[in-house]
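Quick one, probably user error.
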């Protein structure tokens, strides 16, 4: 079943998603041309692009809660150029493709692709602006392509674009199962009264860590809740002292892991720590107020205050978690569903392992082009096991 997250259990990030679907959408056809399951970056970009390149085809997005309720609205907003496994054969220029998608769809999301920093405890660059006390001395070791976006604005913008182009955005429509008939039949757990089954000729499943059974990804995939905190806004002088005045996002290349970025109002996000569901791979069972997450948050806040004297008394305003999924190979899933390999009528996308901000929209467009016969899927995206 496609999980419906209890958002109060995961805390609240410091941005908002502002989207309302068309008040009187056209009725759904008896058989959809394209069904997109999951209303995050991937699904919304795919839906918008499908309507852009195939405006005569029907498209509907089925979201279990509200758009961006999963990983997309709860990510830190750091955009990177490659997958967690690095560059992949035929992947192409992710950041350029991401920017092209946003420009074509008219999405404004505070996009600043001015680079990112890898930081570590040795082999520092001679001009590193960062020098933090963190199990040794953390310094910048490499600058890489990347940047930042506002997750709330990106979700909202993609949703508005898909809606404007004529896609149905169906929030609070949780998918329970898919029957793999000639035209796959989607069974709804929640949604419009009286209509619990909808057929679709082709499907994109973009639920990431929240529906392993529906995606066919029970093996070789590891869903977790990644944790993050946000500080109060700090002064420009404080940013200068801690080396973040250039506002480049960063992540460590060695352990203990830490990532972060500066927001538009000068508050700073820091992230570290993963939490597993206590009894299964259902992340809906995780409550960040319970003992283990609370301990991780407290340790992270103490760690941040110890990085530099300029952060010693900083206050924290937000604690939250977001779903993240890893594969054993660290490569994302981008392949035909195991039940759709012969007919090639359903694509699964996910497992970005923290590298999904740009890559998710990029692969959403690619999936739209694959389902309409314009591109092939890559070999590296096949599910494992």
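Nope, works fine. Designed sequence:
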């Amino acid at each position: 079943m496609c999980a419906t997250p209890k958002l109060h259990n995961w805390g609240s990030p410091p941005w908002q998603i502002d989207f309302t679907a068309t008040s009187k959408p056209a009725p759904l056809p008896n058989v959809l041309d394209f069904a997109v399951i999951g209303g995050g970056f991937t699904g919304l970009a795919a839906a918008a692009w499908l309507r852009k390149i195939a405006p005569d085809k029907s498209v509907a997005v089925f979201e279990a809660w509200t758009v961006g309720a999963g990983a997309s609205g709860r990510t830190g907003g750091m955009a990177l150029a490659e997958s967690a496994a690095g560059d992949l054969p035929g992947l192409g220029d992710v950041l350029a493709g991401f920017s092209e998608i946003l420009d074509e769809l008219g999405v404004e999301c505070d996009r600043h692709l001015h680079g990112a920093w890898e930081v570590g405890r040795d082999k520092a660059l001679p001009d590193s602006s960062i020098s933090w006390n963190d199990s040794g001395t953390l310094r910048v070791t490499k600058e890489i392509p990347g940047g930042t976006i506002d997750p709330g604005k990106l979700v909202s913008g993609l949703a508005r674009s898909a809606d404007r182009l004529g896609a149905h955005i169906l929030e609070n429509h949780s998918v329970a199962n898919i029957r793999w008939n000639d035209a796959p039949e989607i069974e709804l757990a929640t949604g419009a009264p009286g209509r619990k089954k909808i057929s679709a000729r082709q499907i994109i499943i973009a639920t990431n860590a929240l529906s392993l059974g529906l995606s066919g990804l029970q093996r070789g995939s590891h869903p977790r809740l990644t944790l993050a905190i946000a500080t109060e806004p700090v002064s420009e002088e404080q940013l200068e002292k801690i080396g973040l005045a250039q506002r480049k996002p960063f992540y460590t290349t060695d352990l203990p892991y830490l990532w972060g970025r500066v927001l538009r109002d000068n508050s700073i996000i820091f992230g570290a720590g993963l939490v597993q569901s206590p009894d299964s791979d259902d992340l809906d069972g995780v409550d960040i107020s319970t003992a283990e997450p609370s301990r991780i948050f407290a340790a992270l806040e103490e760690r941040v205050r110890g990085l530099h004297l300029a952060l010693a008394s900083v206050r924290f305003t937000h604690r939250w978690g977001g779903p993240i999924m890893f594969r054993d190979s660290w490569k994302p899933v981008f392949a035909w569903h195991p039940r759709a390999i012969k007919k090639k009528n359903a694509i699964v996308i996910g497992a970005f392992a923290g590298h999904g901000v740009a890559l998710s929209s990029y692969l959403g467009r690619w999936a739209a082009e694959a389902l309409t016969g314009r591109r092939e899927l890559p070999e590296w995206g096949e599910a494992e096991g």
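Helices lie at 41-53, 94-105, 151-164, 212-215, 236-242, 291-305, 356-371.
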